[in-house]
């Protein structure tokens, strides 16, 4: 991070008109102007080049003039005009003939009357940078004498030249030259001085004055060393500290919230001015010998320098503190952005919005009964460790009751120490009911309450193999991390989840199992769930503590009273009282019935008390919930067909939408199903969009919304019962539906499929709008937004950013909520209001639509043609559901835009087979195989293993090689997931392994059995090995085939990696697999196999250096330990070469009796002997093992050189020579 900030800090130089890489001194560039160089007859014009004579100092002198460097040539080329530099004492905007270098090498030009104010003093400009402001303040704080001296300026070149001439002894060597030779690394400090001043002065002319004094002081400091040698050490330290002034750049200015940097810099500048004054006082005295000057300097300079060193250290610490603060905030911002990328950016916001809505709907006192239940108190007090489950009928108020329970628990835990935590979630019949979504939300809440978990989460992600998908896409891995984190916290954690009945079956089963298992294992975890009565859910939660929501007239009366007073406030008190009394009698425990009845009364066509009484007495008692919905539908649409069609379309869209829609999205979707159905362009469809119309109709059927926030994802159906009504029949038919009508699950399933089919067709039709063919989703700037300079948090370094008064600068620029620059709006690029939803969710609707309701293959092909702008646009949007520039990784998605993968993951079986047949006919085999490999990867990664048999087909009449490649991919994925595989995933892999086993007969015919065995062994896939050997017991042909031992990589060079089964397993470190293979009958041929370059199983095992692996192999094949391959290497030599395998080498020497000389018998040792090798590598531990355990001759690595011994070979690590020699000679036999 330090290098990161250094690089960013240097970005401040980018605005400088001075080329910091130009070797031409800035002072001489300025000399190209008429004022600074009167000898030049031609004035330099911008863009022109002029050759200007360079002033040559007297021989042997080095003059520091502004940015001067040692003389290089007589002429210098200047491009354009150097900027005129202003003194801070001159009125802003007034031209001045001097530069900052006037304090160094030019006489100041007297100010004119126009440059002075009425009081005779120069007008002070408003300092525009930290340096100028601090310098101006420092000048104002020093004595008037010093200020006058600084403003008058002094030509230091002339000063030192006169000193040289006045002292006869030093005419041959200038004081400056001698001073620079005396300080350490003189050119380093001179270059540092130039680097400090050049870029900063170029950014702002006013700042050059502040840096001019730095140049002057540095020049004088060097001169002091030339006069007084005893000050060399102090001056060197002073020059080392001067560069801290450079740290006060734009970044430091923004971070200087408490003005500590500014105040410290003022003090540093005061020290520099005092140094400047003290030195000039000594050097400008007339008729004073250098010896006298030396004594005076030695007396006056040290205290000033010590003050400067002390104060510059303080300045450095202030800058360091400020920089550390911004680094922390950058890291915080980065981690927050990473969390949003991997877990989603909208989950917490949507949960909070929904919870607030429930809170506002809640009738005071209506839920109090819940917390008075003994079961609740026992659960909260942890006297029972089982989950608490709240059951109730649909519409009885479960969700509102759960929101009350959540608020109550939050209040209770506030005063407890250690402070417990609570995480909660509301499940809906959309993506929020998926267990991956649920645990993503719970984990974000947990990290919000315990921020240190964010770093732990970051490390967890970072440690995950980069070759595999993000673990946040795997429900099992994410669930495990969540509960591991909860356990590590060691404090009570309340997990509250509402709406289990609205989850998908598989997700619900996994969710309940994990909650039950982990709450049983960790008593600090307390789980509360709610659900409708369903036998399968009750069975899964058997043994849990239960609370059942039953009808309660007093609770009904409380709810009715609250809603009537809120929504029917326009009625007379007497009428309201009658409504409250009548509805309370009729409610029968159904909170949603009460809400719909009040909504109906609110929209009733007359407010005459008599009419309302008749309606409440005669009509309403016969109204079931379905009747209320039908009557409300009729009333709000005024029974007009166009209105009814619009409302019905909106309700059907919302019933199957994958997430809450925005007002804009719903308006475009309704328009596309209505009057804009024939539109073929976004522009033409836009003419039919009218949000006001349908919002007036739909309000009673949806949750409360913010009508001003048109792009906020907020519109959802008010209750699950409305969705159930839509899924039973069209809203246009609600008048004929009764609660007592029995609607089968098959009818609901069919209706759901129809609605998903209608929505997927609408989405695809939208994405295929003709005017989207050539539009680009991102601007050029957005395309570059993921480059290094635009990483999250980089905005703290943008110089153009406006600062916000009253806020800490780093908080303003590293706000965790400032995300505008990280998002995009497709509508701004001409994609309309429905593109985001259509792109992100058409595949989800395709998956849920039955074959007869889904898409034609031609539609999918039109939208998945790689390389077209239209396809790329929706694909890019698909990975950014929240319109963030950085792709979202919280959900698993296909790895590439390939039709085969998309259809096999999301399409019907018929579509998949149709596409596969078309590909086989129209494409070459290699292309088809590549597509299949990618599809296999996606199917396994996204948990769709049941589709693999459909994709991996085999036949005796077809070459099995493509299938073998796919079988290998399946087993490699199994190996990656094996350690963290759930039982459900294990069952799915078992099914595909059984499918693969069906090809054993073809493997025998086409001689692929041995290859299959070796593939399974290399992956450690024992389930497949077990199937092979079990089948081989009764199939001798299969046994003979798998136990063949051919060379599997003919023609390969010495890098051969293929072996036989035992060697392949050893090469990949599969110890359990080797143990399994060694138990099989007939495996000896594979155990003794030697490949084409001479490797046996021990050579292959050296790759991982597992001593237990060698123990297994030695137990069956001890004679193979000393085998030499084609290049002469034994396993022992390979282990010594790899280093750090001391335990294995010890085992081979001590137990397996490996030859420590590896077959070499000459008296003189060989270059390739293990001890010679270990000595060359400087591996002392290996040498000790070879000598102490193996009995190697320690003197074999030495040779006589005269009367001394020396190593025969050069050492890679010379620093180990002494230790090696000491040990080896101490063991001399």
Describe this structure in words.
Residues 25-39 have a biased composition (Low complexity). Pfam families: Ank_2, NPHP3_N. InterPro entries: Ankyrin_rpt (IPR002110), Ankyrin_rpt-contain_sf (IPR036770), NPHP3-like_N (IPR056884), P-loop_NTPase (IPR027417). This is Nephrocystin 3-like N-terminal domain-containing protein. The protein has 58 helices and nine strands. It is mostly helical and 1229 residues long. Among the domains are: 59-70 and 83-326, no CATH class; 344-550, 3-Layer(aba) Sandwich (Rossmann fold); 552-623, no CATH class; 1129-1229, Serine Threonine Protein Phosphatase 5, Tetratricopeptide repeat. The strands form three sheets. A five-stranded parallel sheet has the order 4-5-6-3-7, with helices on both faces. Strands 1-2 form a two-stranded antiparallel ribbon. β8 (1198-1201) and β9 (1204-1207) form a beta hairpin. The two termini are 54 Å apart.
């Amino acid at each position: 991070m330090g290098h990161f900030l250094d690089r960013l800090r240097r970005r401040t130089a980018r605005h400088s008109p001075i080329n910091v890489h130009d070797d031409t001194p800035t002072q001489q560039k300025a000399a190209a102007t008429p004022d600074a160089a009167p000898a030049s007859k031609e004035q330099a014009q911008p863009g022109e080049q002029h050759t200007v004579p360079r002033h040559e100092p007297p021989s042997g002198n080095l003059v520091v003039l502004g940015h001067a460097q040692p003389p290089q040539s007589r002429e210098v080329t200047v491009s354009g005009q150097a900027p005129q530099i202003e003194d801070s004492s001159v009125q802003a905007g007034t031209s001045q003939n001097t530069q900052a270098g006037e304090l160094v090498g030019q006489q100041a030009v007297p100010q004119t009357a126009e440059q002075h104010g009425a009081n005779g003093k120069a007008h002070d400009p408003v300092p525009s940078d930290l340096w100028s402001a601090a310098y101006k303040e420092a000048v104002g704080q020093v004595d008037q004498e010093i200020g006058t001296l600084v403003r008058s300026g002094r030509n230091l070149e002339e000063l030192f030249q006169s000193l040289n001439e006045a002292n006869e002894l030093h005419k041959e060597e200038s004081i400056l030259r001698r001073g620079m030779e005396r300080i350490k690394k003189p050119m380093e400090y001179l270059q540092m001085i130039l680097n400090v001043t050049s870029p900063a002065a170029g950014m702002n002319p006013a700042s050059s004055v502040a840096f001019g004094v730095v140049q002057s002081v540095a020049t004088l400091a060097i001169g002091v060393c030339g006069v007084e040698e005893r000050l060399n050490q102090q001056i060197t330290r002073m020059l080392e500290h001067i560069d801290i002034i450079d740290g006060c750049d734009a970044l430091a200015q923004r971070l200087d919230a408490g003005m500590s940097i500014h105040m410290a810099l003022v003090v540093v500048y005061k020290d520099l001015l005092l140094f400047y004054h003290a030195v000039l006082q000594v050097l400008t005295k007339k008729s004073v010998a250098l010896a006298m000057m030396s004594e005076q300097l030695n007396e006056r300079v040290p205290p000033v320098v010590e003050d400067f060193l002390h104060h510059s250290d303080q300045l450095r610490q202030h800058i360091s503190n400020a920089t550390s603060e911004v680094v922390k905030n950058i890291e915080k911002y980065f981690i927050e952005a990473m969390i949003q990328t991997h877990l989603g950016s909208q989950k917490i916001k949507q949960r909070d919005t929904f919870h607030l809505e429930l809170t506002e709907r809640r009738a005071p006192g209506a839920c109090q009964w819940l917390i008075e239940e003994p079961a609740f108190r026992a659960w909260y007090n942890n006297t029972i460790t089982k989950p608490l489950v709240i059951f109730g009928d649909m519409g009885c108020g479960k969700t509102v009751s759960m929101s009350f329970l959540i608020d109550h628990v939050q209040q209770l835990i506030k005063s407890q120490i250690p402070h417990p935590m609570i995480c909660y979630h509301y499940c809906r019949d959309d993506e929020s009911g998926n267990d991956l979504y649920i645990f993503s939300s719970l984990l974000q809440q947990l990290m919000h309450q315990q921020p240190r978990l964010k770093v732990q989460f970051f490390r967890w992600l970072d440690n995950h193999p980069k070759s595999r998908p993000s673990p946040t896409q795997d429900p099992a891995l994410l669930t495990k991390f969540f509960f591991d984190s909860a356990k590590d916290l060691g404090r009570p954690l309340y997990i509250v989840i509402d709406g289990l009945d609205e989850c998908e079956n598989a997700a619900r089963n996994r969710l309940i199992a994990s909650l039950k298992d982990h709450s049983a294992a960790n008593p600090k975890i307390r789980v509360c769930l709610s659900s409708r009565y369903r036998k399968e859910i009750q069975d899964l939660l058997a043994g849990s503590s239960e609370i059942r929501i039953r009808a309660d007239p007093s609770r009904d009366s409380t709810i009715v009273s609250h809603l009537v007073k809120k929504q029917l406030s326009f009625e007379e008190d007497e009428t309201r009282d009658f409504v409250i009394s009548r509805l309370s009698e009729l409610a029968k425990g159904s909170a949603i019935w009460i809400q719909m009845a009040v909504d109906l009364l609110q929209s009733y066509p007359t407010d005459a008390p008599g009419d309302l009484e008749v309606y409440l007495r005669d009509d309403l008692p016969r109204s079931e919930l379905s009747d209320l919905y039908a009557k409300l539908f009729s009333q709000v649409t005024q029974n007009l067909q166009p209105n009814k069609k619009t409302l019905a379309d909106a309700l059907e869209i919302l019933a199957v939408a994958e997430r809450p829609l925005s007002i804009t999205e719903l308006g475009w979707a309704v328009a596309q199903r209505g009057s804009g159905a024939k539109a073929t362009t976004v522009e033409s469809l836009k003419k039919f969009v009218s949000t006001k119309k349908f919002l007036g109709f739909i309000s009673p059927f949806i949750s409360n919304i913010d009508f001003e926030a048109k792009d906020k994802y907020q519109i959802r159906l008010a209750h699950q019962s409305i969705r159930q009504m839509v899924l039973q029949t069209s809203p246009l038919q609600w008048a004929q539906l009764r609660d007592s009508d029995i609607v089968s699950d098959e009818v609901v399933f069919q209706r759901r499929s129809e609605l998903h089919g209608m929505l997927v067709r609408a989405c695809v039709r939208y994405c295929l709008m003709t005017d989207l063919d050539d539009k680009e989703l991102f601007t050029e700037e957005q395309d570059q937004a993921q480059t290094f300079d635009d990483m999250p948090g980089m905005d703290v370094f943008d110089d153009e950013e406006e600062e916000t008064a009253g806020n800490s600068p780093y908080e303003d620029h590293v706000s965790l909520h400032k995300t505008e620059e990280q998002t995009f709006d497709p509508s701004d690029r001409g994609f309309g209001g429905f593109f985001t939803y259509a792109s992100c969710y058409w595949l989800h609707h395709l998956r849920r639509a039955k074959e007869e309701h889904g898409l034609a293959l031609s539609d999918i092909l039109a939208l998945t043609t790689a390389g077209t702008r239209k396809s790329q646009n929706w694909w890019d949007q698909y990975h950014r559901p929240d319109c963030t520039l950085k792709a979202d990784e919280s959900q698993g998605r296909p790895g590439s835009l390939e039709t085969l993968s998309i259809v096999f993951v999301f399409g019907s079986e018929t579509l998949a087979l149709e596409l596969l047949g078309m590909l086989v006919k129209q494409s070459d085999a290699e292309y088809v195989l590549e597509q299949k490999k990618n599809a296999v990867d996606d199917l396994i990664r996204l948990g769709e293993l049941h589709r693999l048999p459909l994709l991996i087909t085999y036949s005796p009449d077809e070459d099995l090689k493509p299938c073998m490649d796919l079988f290998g991919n399946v087993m490699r994925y199994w190996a990656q997931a094996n350690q963290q595989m759930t039982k459900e995933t294990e069952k799915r892999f078992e099914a595909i392994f059984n499918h693969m086993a069906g090809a054993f007969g073809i493997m025998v015919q086409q001689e692929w059995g041995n290859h299959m065995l070796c593939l399974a062994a290399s992956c450690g896939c024992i389930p497949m090995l077990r199937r092979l050997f079990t089948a081989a017991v009764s199939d001798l042909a299969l046994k003979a085939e798998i136990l063949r031992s051919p060379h599997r990589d003919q023609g390969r060079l010495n890098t051969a990696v293929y072996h036989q089964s035992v060697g392949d397993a050893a090469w990949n470190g599969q110890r359990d697999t080797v143990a399994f293979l060694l138990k099989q009958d007939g495996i000896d041929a594979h155990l003794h196999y030697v490949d084409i370059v001479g490797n046996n199983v021990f050579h292959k095992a050296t790759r991982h250096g597992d001593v237990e692996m060698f123990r297994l192999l030695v137990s069956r094949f001890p004679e193979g330990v000393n085998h030499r391959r084609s290049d002469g290497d034994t396993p022992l030599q390979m282990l010594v070469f790899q280093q750090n395998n001391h335990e294995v080498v010890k085992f081979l020497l001590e137990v397996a009796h490996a030859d420590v000389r590896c077959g070499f018998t000459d008296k003189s040792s060989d270059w390739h002997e293990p001890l010679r090798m270990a000595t060359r590598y400087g591996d002392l531990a290996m040498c000790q093992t070879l000598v102490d355990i193996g009995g190697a001759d320690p003197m074999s690595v030495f040779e006589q050189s005269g009367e001394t011994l020396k190593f025969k070979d050069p050492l890679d690590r010379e620093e180990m020579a002494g230790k090696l020699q000491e040990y080896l000679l101490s063991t001399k036999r």
